[in-house]
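Example record

One chain of 406 residues, shown exactly as stored in the release files.
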Amino acid sequence: MCAMRDLDKKAAAARDKQAAIGPDIDIDSFTEESPRHETVKRAADIPEEDREQLLMAGIDTSEQEKSGTYIQKDSVAIYSFSHEEGLEVIPIRDALEHLPWIRDYYGKLVPVDLDKYTSRAHTDLQDGYVIRALPGKAISFPVQACLYFHKDGSVQNVHNIVIAEEGSEVHVISGCAAAAHVSRGLHIGISEFYVKKNAKLSFTMIHHWADNMIVRPRSVTCVEEGGLFLSNYVSMKPIQSIQAYPTTRLEGKGSVARFYSLLVGAPGSEIDIGGRVLLRAEDTRAEIVSRAITNGGTIIARGDIVGEVPGVRGHLECHGLILNGGLMHAIPELKGMVDGVEMSHEAAVGKIAQDEILYLMSRGLTEEEATATIVRGFLSVDIPGLPPRLKAEIDRAVELSQQEMM
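Predicted structure tokens for this chain:
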């Protein structure tokens, strides 16, 4: 209780603290009030119009080939269930009330006083999920979690914790979506990931928000010896503003982190996305790969790899494409703090070469088809270690988003 009171004090003191980067947001211009949605016994019981929106974010309410599901509508966890032994899927408010061990993880990686957003996520916590793979368990199918925005003009404050216990393996698809009638809202989220010794965690986030949504996620991952953290981020739907700079700490020998992001910036969108990896133990490795297309919006693609001990390796890759105007700003950073680190980066920003379009048109494609083919190839990133089923989910999300973009 004492530790929680300390968090309360820290969060309260940071209530008006601006973030280090990104446009400042007036949180109080959004309403905290949220309707009391009813829980459902099955994910399939969710209204059809909502199910369609969830599907666009990679959430399949039929739950076929899914090991577990968590769905939160506005502030209410309306469904959470695990279909597989060795997997726990729990609303975080229930965990904080009934499971004392969760206090060993809550607020340990992301400081509640980091900025005004982490402060609100703690002081005005609505809900969020805890997903845990027990020691030695290889969860057979992906776990899906959805944070669904239904109340127009409101704010959603969540805190998520994902734990891959020692020797376990789990794949999580996190889909964030807004109802079709939503025109404006603010989503604030804290996510803390724990990848323990020799565990594997792949986390795929697909954003499918409304045009005037503002999103401020804060996340930190800790990876122990021999662990693997694989993060995929897909955002191809118009959005007003998103700013996120997740950090991964490779604390154990031989641990690995890989970040892959696919971004599309529509007119009026401000997307400031990045990834930072701290290589703190011997033989650790990191890779950050970003593919971004601006279709009239602003995209800032950040990447930062820091080598703190000898013998570590890292590679950073940012490629941007300007289709119909907009701004593309790639910020790759490497920092070697000792002798013997091996790190590299490459960055490129450009447009589609006219001769490539003409070549494809000479093969019978229209100009629109030729452009779509080139864009599809640009966004096709080979992600090593990704399970086929998860890759199919990402490919489907990209395909749906491309149809809207083109």
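Notes: The helical segments are 2-13, 48-56, 92-98, 116-123, 354-362, 367-379, 388-405.
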